[in-house]
Each structure stands twice: as structure tokens, then as C-alpha cells.
Design a protein that fits this description.
By secondary structure, the protein is an alpha/beta fold. The chain contains 26 helices and 16 strands. Helix content is 47%, strand content 10%. The strands form five sheets. A six-stranded mixed sheet has the order 4-7-8-1-10-9. A four-stranded mixed sheet has the order 14-15-13-16.
């Protein structure tokens, strides 16, 4: 397969623009570890939830017939066998061939139209009929593909198919015995009739061939055919993508239908913005009920996500024409240069002298002076900043010791060190966001966000390669690229999310509040504040008064949309008795870049709901609040 100009620009969810070979060469198998063999052999309804770009659609596409056939036949240029081995461990492949084939169905506008545009369809009976047709036709096409490839017996057309038992009161499509080819032809004809119905005028009669019925029968019908011991066909795996695009009553109806016990695995991919706020709060591990398993694709650990991104990067570099000499992640990382070790004295002299002057005033030690030198070590400026923070803390104590020699010294820790680095970079205009770690963290555990950022890195490398220049990106260039990505992300909030204007206003006020608290001279919440905390009681009380208070309704709707869209992420504190823990809402890490905040988690502040509601409107004095705010020492609380 020919290489691409910039493989980082391709999204795996873009199904029409990616052929199967390109998709599989770019696909990273990390998400396969989120499912277990029991999800197939003892099927529950599995719900894959996540924000846009979390990898839901590309995960489902992997299980389509075309993808599985290509993997099983080793028709990949980068055939490292990782994906094939993972599928074999799950039971998708065995010694006889492919044992499951995915029936990919997108919940597109046609399914929605059945609810609003077609008369008398509010009871979802026509929705059942259309899905039955699509499921069965999808399965027939998959079986025929396998037969044409020689993976199962090729004689299909005259194979008899048993009808559903009369007590199941199934629709006419499944009520009579048919041959395989007759079933295919009938489903194709019904799909054409549905297309005509959906393009008809309101009030036009429903074609007589379309018989609405009260429940889904396709899965039971296919399972019945698989009971034939002489028919070694693969088990269907129902894949419903973009479930969030259905109307609420359609989702509720189909969710109930798919919960019925069946020998056919059923997987749903859904964006979180259709959830209520309480459904988005983190629980202990995967939500796993008796009949349903909910897998949140946004909750991966940072270390695991970084490993995933390394695999993604290596595959994309391998497929990018100008970057193929950097075939490993190690080579790519080495091209992201770190900051300089020294800086010329004229560039820092004035501001360094200001720091020294402030230290003299705080300590009363007139001997603190700076020696001129051609190059100043960055480490020296960092130490100077750290000493200033400790001096500001000591000077700010409300109660001083009578005997100064008994006063305990100010202690520095890793968080203070990081706060000092943040202050130093801002004071001397040095790059703060650089290296592969910064690229990984600012991706915010979202592969689409990573590709958007890394695509700009790759674009600059490609341009230099085309000019015959080194690929290396300096620390300052990396920071400029990250800041540009952060600015684009911030500017897209208003148009890209439900309640976007309110969220953008909230982010603006919250960011300026975080900035002001973070940039206090004594760095009270080291290394900085990037989140706010709410108790379960606050969230519950907000639900109770819902409807009586328009501000609370705005609060709940905007907060829910921000979490579902990955603008905010939630972590739960470990401290406190069960039920009294705090839920901490953290900025997307690109917003930390936009507001010049640290990238690490940990620093947060408790905020009253009333303050949050005010922040969601214009005219809020966020800077003044930050200056007056009495910082709460909660940054040390551990998070899950």
C-alpha cells in the first residue's frame, strides 16, 4: 500500500474515505483489551460510551466482515499479527476460520425519520421492521462474502431456512420457509420499499409489504438457523453505532429490546451527551450489571493511554511518506527536542534582578546578589524561583514565631518544584509545554484530539523533510504548535457542543479564576489549580430543585454537556467516608495550555454551585474572585 502524505490526518471513524486495508494498517489494537471472551461466548448487552473521538466507531469497524476477512487472510502490509492474535484470544478466530462476523448498523437519519415523519410510527413498530431487515440482510451479505472467499461451503442459494415457530408470532418475513437467495431478495426489496417510504410525503400510505411489529425478531431468527448442526456459519455480532443519534424514546425502546436474552452478542456505541449528569459520575471500574456491561472508553489510565499513543504514532509514522526513516516511536520522540540548559544573561538580567530584590526584601538579607555571567543555567533560575516561593510563603504566615530560630523551615516538594518551573517559564518567556509527555497529556486520553495535535507536528516535520532540512522541532516550536491547537479547541467550543455558548463562557471565567489562584506569589496550591470539586450532596440538591430554578437547570445541562464532550473530566477523591467523597471536574488539558496552567492533576478548589452558575453567565469578575479567594489546601487529596 502506498504511503500517505500525512497519515496523522486520517480518522479511523471516517468510514467512506478509508478502505479496509488503510484502516487496518492504521488501527491500533489497544482497545481490544477492554473486552473479554465472555462478552461473546456468554453475551450481555455491551455499551461502549465515550466522548467524540474516543475510538468507539473505529473499534466497531474492526469487527466488520471485510476487516475480519483481511486480518484472517493476512492481507496487511504491516502484518505484525498483534490484532489477529488478540482476535484469536477472544474467540473471533479459531482453527476452522472466522467464528463471528459483525453486523454494522449506523443509527442514521433514516431511523430517526421513522419516529417523526411517518404517521402512526411513534410506537416504534416500523423501527423494529427496518432493523430486522437491515440485520438479516447484513448477515446474509457477510455469509455470502465468506462463501465467495472459500471460508464456508459455497452452496448458499438453495439452502433452506426454517421459519420461526408460530408461537413467536413473528412478522411475515420470518414466518415462512425460504431459501437463502429468497431471503436475500426479499430483504433487498423491503429495503427499497423503506427508502421509498422515507422519501414520500407525510400522509402517504405505508407500502403493504412493510408490516410493523412490536419487537425485534431478527436475532432470534438468525439464532434459529445456527442451530442446524450441518450449518457451520459464523455467529453474528450486532454492532449499533451512533446510538445517541436516535430520539430518546427510540433509544429506550431498543435498549429494552436488546436486553432480551439472546445467544447473539449485542454491542452499542454511544456518545455520552445523551446521559444525565449522575450517569457520568465515575464508579468503581466498569459498570457491570446482570444483563448489560458499560465500558467507558474515556477512563483509561494515563500510562496505558500513553502506550496506546506510542503505538498509534509508530503506525502513523510508518504510513507517512516523508517520515518513514523515523520508523520507531523512539526516533519520533528524539525529534521533539527539550528546552535549552542555559540562557544568555542579557535576556534574563532585568527580571532576575527583580527576583533577587524581592528575596532581599522578604528575608532582610542584603547579601543576596547576582553575578553577571555570559550564560545563566536554567537550573539556577529555577532554584531562584523556588526560593522566592518559599520566602513568600514564610512571609505570608499570619502567626510568626517569637524565637525565629525555632521556626520550621519552608519545605520544598515536587509540586513546589513544578510551580517554580511554571513561574520561571512565564517570567523569562521560556517554553513550558514540550516533549512527547506534553503531547500525550494534552491529548486528554482522546485519540482524535491526539491526532489533531500530532498532525500539526507531523506537518511541520514533513515540510522540513521536503526541503531537505532536519525534522527536529525545538521546544519553542512545540509550544507554539500546542498553543495553536489549544486556541482552535477553545474557539470550537461554542459551535461544537450542546449549550456551547454557556460552556464557553463558563470555561473563560473558570480559566481566569484558575489563573489568578495559580499565579499567587506563594503558589498556595502547587503546582496550580486546574479543577473544581463538588460533593454528592451538591449534585443531588441541584437535581432536587431542578425545574424551580432556571439557573440550576443551566448548571446541570452545561456541566453534563461539558463532561460528555471531554471539555471537563471527572475524578473522585479517595478521602472521606462513602458517599461524602468529592467529584473533581478537571479542565481538558488543552485548556490548561490555553490558560497557561500546569498539565498535572491534583490541584483543585471546592466551589459553591451558586458561584458556578454565575460563572456560566457573562459579566462575572473571575479575576477579582481569584484575588480574594482563600485558597483551600485540598491539593494533596488522592484521586481515583
Amino acid at each position: 500500500m502506498p504511503a500517505l502524505r500525512n497519515a496523522f490526518r486520517y480518522r479511523l471513524a471516517d468510514r467512506p474515505s478509508l478502505d479496509t486495508g488503510l484502516f487496518l494498517n492504521l488501527y491500533c489494537p489497544a482497545l481490544l483489551n477492554r473486552i473479554v471472551p465472555e462478552d461473546l461466548s456468554i453475551p450481555k448487552l455491551v455499551v461502549f460510551s465515550g466522548s467524540p473521538g474516543a475510538g468507539k466507531s473505529s473499534f466497531l469497524r474492526l469487527f466488520q466482515t471485510e476487516s475480519l476477512m483481511a486480518i484472517h487472510s493476512h492481507r496487511l502490509e504491516s502484518s505484525d499479527g498483534v490484532v489477529a492474535e488478540a482476535l484469536r484470544e477472544l474467540g473471533i478466530f479459531d482453527d476452522t476460520g472466522i467464528r463471528y462476523i459483525g453486523l454494522y448498523i449506523q443509527c442514521d437519519s433514516n431511523l430517526r425519520l421513522l419516529s417523526k415523519s411517518v404517521p402512526h410510527s411513534g410506537d416504534q413498530k416500523l423501527l423494529n421492521t427496518l432493523l430486522d431487515v437491515r440485520i438479516v440482510l447484513n448477515y446474509c451479505r457477510g455469509v455470502r462474502q465468506l462463501a465467495q472467499a472459500g471460508m464456508i461451503a459455497p452452496e448458499l442459494d438453495t439452502l433452506p431456512l426454517a421459519p420461526l415457530p408460530t408461537e413467536d408470532t413473528g412478522p411475515p418475513l420470518f414466518a415462512v420457509a425460504r431459501t437463502f437467495s429468497e431471503l436475500e431478495a426479499e430483504c433487498t426489496s423491503l429495503e427499497i420499499d423503506f427508502a421509498a417510504l422515507l422519501n414520500s410525503f407525510p400522509g402517504d400510505p405505508i407500502p403493504t409489504s412493510l408490516v410493523p411489529h412490536s419487537r425485534l425478531f431478527a436475532l432470534s431468527y438468525i439464532a434459529l438457523q445456527l442451530k442446524d448442526p450441518n450449518r457451520n456459519w459464523p455467529v453474528p455480532l450486532l454492532l449499533l453505532d451512533d446510538f445517541q443519534d436516535l430520539y430518546e424514546e427510540q433509544r429506550e425502546h431498543l435498549h429494552g429490546e436488546l436486553l432480551r436474552r439472546a445467544s447473539v452478542p449485542r454491542w452499542i456505541a454511544i456518545r455520552k451527551y445523551v446521559y444525565e449528569l449522575e450517569q457520568l459520575l465515575p464508579l468503581e471500574g466498569t459498570k457491570d450489571g446482570r444483563e448489560v456491561r458499560d465500558i467507558d472508553l474515556d477512563d483509561s489510565k494515563q500510562a496505558a493511554f500513553r502506550k496506546f499513543l506510542e503505538n498509534v504514532t509508530e503506525r502513523r509514522v510508518r504510513m507517512t511518506d516523508s517520515l518513514q526513516q523515523m520508523l520507531t516511536i523512539q526516533n519520533f520522540r528524539e525529534r521533539l527536542k527539550l528546552g535549552e540548559d542555559t540562557i544568555s544573561w542579557p535576556r534574563v538580567a532585568n527580571r532576575a534582578r527583580e527576583v533577587a530584590s524581592r528575596l532581599r526584601n522578604l528575608s532582610g538579607n542584603d547579601t543576596i546578589t547576582l553575578q553577571e555571567q555570559p550564560e545563566v543555567p536554567i537550573r539556577f533560575l529555577h532554584d531562584l524561583e523556588k526560593h522566592l516561593i518559599l520566602a513568600e510563603r514564610k512571609a505570608g504566615r499570619s502567626q510568626r514565631y517569637i524565637l525565629p530560630e525555632l521556626e520550621p523551615p519552608e519545605q520544598s516538594d515536587a509540586k513546589t518544584e513544578e510551580a517554580a518551573r511554571l513561574f520561571m517559564c512565564a517570567r523569562y518567556n521560556l517554553p513550558y509545554y514540550f516533549g512527547f509527555d506534553a503531547l500525550s497529556v494534552t491529548s486528554n486520553r482522546n485519540v482524535e484530539q491526539f491526532l489533531d495535535i500530532a498532525g500539526n507536528y507531523a506537518e511541520k516535520m514533513i515540510f522540513r523533510a521536503e526541503l531537505g532540512r532536519p525534522f527536529d522541532l525545538t521546544a519553542r516550536e512545540q509550544e507554539e504548535l500546542l498553543r495553536n491547537s489549544a486556541k482552535r479547541y477553545y474557539n470550537r467550543i461554542e459551535q461544537g457542543f450542546p449549550h456551547g455558548y454557556t460552556i464557553r463562557q463558563f470555561v473563560e471565567n473558570l480559566g481566569r479564576f484558575f489563573q489568578t489562584v495559580t499565579n499567587r506569589a506563594n503558589a498556595p496550591i502547587s503546582p496550580g489549580v486546574t479543577g473544581f470539586g463538588l460533593t454528592r450532596e451538591q449534585l443531588r440538591d441541584a437535581r432536587i430543585v431542578d425545574g424551580a430554578n432556571s439557573g440550576i437547570r443551566v448548571f446541570r445541562d452545561a456541566l453534563t454537556s461539558a463532561v460528555a464532550g471531554n471539555i471537563l473530566s471527572i475524578r473522585k477523591t479517595k478521602q472521606g467516608s462513602p458517599g461524602s467523597e468529592k467529584f473533581v471536574f478537571y479542565f481538558n488539558r488543552l485548556l490548561c495550555v490555553y490558560f497557561n496552567l500546569p498539565l498535572g492533576y491534583g490541584g483543585w478548589q471546592r466551589l459553591p454551585v451558586e458561584i458556578i452558575v454565575k460563572m456560566m453567565s457573562s459579566g462575572f469578575a473571575a479575576d477579582d474572585l481569584g484575588k480574594r479567594w482563600q485558597a483551600q489546601p485540598v491539593e494533596a487529596e488522592e484521586l481515583e
